[in-house]
Amino acid sequence: MRAYNFNAGPAAIPLPVLERAQKELVNFQNTGMSVMELSHRSKDYEEVHNRANSLLRELLGIPDNYEVLFLQGGASLQFSMIPMNFLKEGQTAHFIMSGAWSDKALKEAKFFGETRILASSKEDNYTHIPTDYSLDEVKDGAYLHITSNNTIFGTQWQNYPDSPIPLIADMSSDILCKEIDVEKFSMIYAGAQKNLGPSGVTVVIVKKEFLESAKEDVPTILNYRTHAKNNSLFNTPPTFAIYMLSLVLEWVKEQGGVKNIQKINEEKAGYIYSAIDNSEGFYKAHATDDSRSLMNITFTLPSEELTKKFLQEAKERQFIGLAGHRSVGGCRASTYNAVPKEACAALAEFMTEFKNQNS
Ligand code: PLP
């Protein structure tokens, strides 16, 4: 039996993907080897690598003037690589602070140059995406950094800013969850372990023109140009993670692409938000209505005691990973692409039943 996996990350992988990987594990396409045993310079592997690249381009509508890179070091290394490559002397990197991961990105940028907080919702314990800022203030800045979905707090940008300077988004926890206009961004990055597959690979989508503007004096492996020039094969890439990414992308395509995935995600999140909204205040959403996330649904119960009881009973019914992050408390249901609709409907039903028995 498969658990109802609501973990925040690493997160659920679609079952058909796991089954296909299992089937192919020992003998990949009659090579007599596992995909993880193939040379990264072999034609067989290169096909997997290029397929992942082209599928991502197709699914997100990434134009030809963007590079798609497969890197390592997680989204966390991007927090450092971005300023290392793009924050030049005399320039300022601007940040909109919407959660703990924005904080971490800002902290790393400070090692490399001037930074400025354009807006922040920290004082409200990150219950919403900040709206009180003027983009006129970022003129001449190196770039504007945002976190599109705040995994810990359960908030998500609904409309991205029309930034006059390069816009960079950490989309680690919501890439491929809904349709986006890639051309609004100079760079998008995401660790794979939520919507893209297992951990180990980090996807970077970067506009070529922006890449060309990067600094030259950056160590080879940390320089985006190195990876762009070498089709992300400068050194040994995380081949198995990229293979799994390619299978997840095939699966997204089979689901009807991102457009249909978005529809399903809206339905999934709808079940759980409805259970919160119809609970007569028993469950309280952490996020304000205008900032609610499709991917991480954060809520509290009336007391610590009831929260513990809820989590215990949920676990007994195979609902896994519902404890909230310690900085928010309460509960969090992560409803990434691979979490089936039935799991969300079942959780909503359980929430209502629990409320009726305990209020
Ligand atoms: N950014 C966001 C929005 C995240 O949710 C996470 C991890 O949960 C990270 C960055 C860090 O990612 P990684 O562990 O790949 O460094």
UniProtKB/TrEMBL annotation:
Note accompanying the cofactor annotation: Binds 1 pyridoxal phosphate per subunit.
The UniProt record lists the keyword Cytoplasm: yes
Family affiliation: Belongs to the class-V pyridoxal-phosphate-dependent aminotransferase family. SerC subfamily.
Cofactor: pyridoxal 5'-phosphate
One GO MF term attached to the UniProt entry: O-phospho-L-serine:2-oxoglutarate aminotransferase activity
NCBIfam families, per the entry: PRK05355.1 (NF003764), serC_1 (TIGR01364)
Reported function: Catalyzes the reversible conversion of 3-phosphohydroxypyruvate to phosphoserine and of 3-hydroxy-2-oxo-4-phosphonooxybutanoate to phosphohydroxythreonine.
Major site of localization recorded for this protein: cytoplasm
Residue intervals of the Aminotransferase class V domain: 4-342
Subunit annotation: Homodimer.
Record protein name field: Phosphoserine aminotransferase
SUPFAM superfamilies referenced in this protein's UniProt entry, alphabetically: PLP-dependent transferases
Keyword terms, alphabetized: Amino-acid biosynthesis, Aminotransferase, Cytoplasm, Pyridoxal phosphate, Serine biosynthesis, Transferase
Residues the entry annotates as binding pyridoxal 5'-phosphate: A75, S76, W101, T151, D170, Q193, N235, T236
Subcellular location per the Swiss-Prot or TrEMBL entry: Cytoplasm
Enzyme Commission number(s) from the entry: 2.6.1.52
Post-translational modification N6-(pyridoxal phosphate)lysine, affected residues: K194
Pathway assigned to this chain's UniProt record: Amino-acid biosynthesis; L-serine biosynthesis; L-serine from 3-phospho-D-glycerate: step 2/3
Residues at which L-glutamate binds: R41
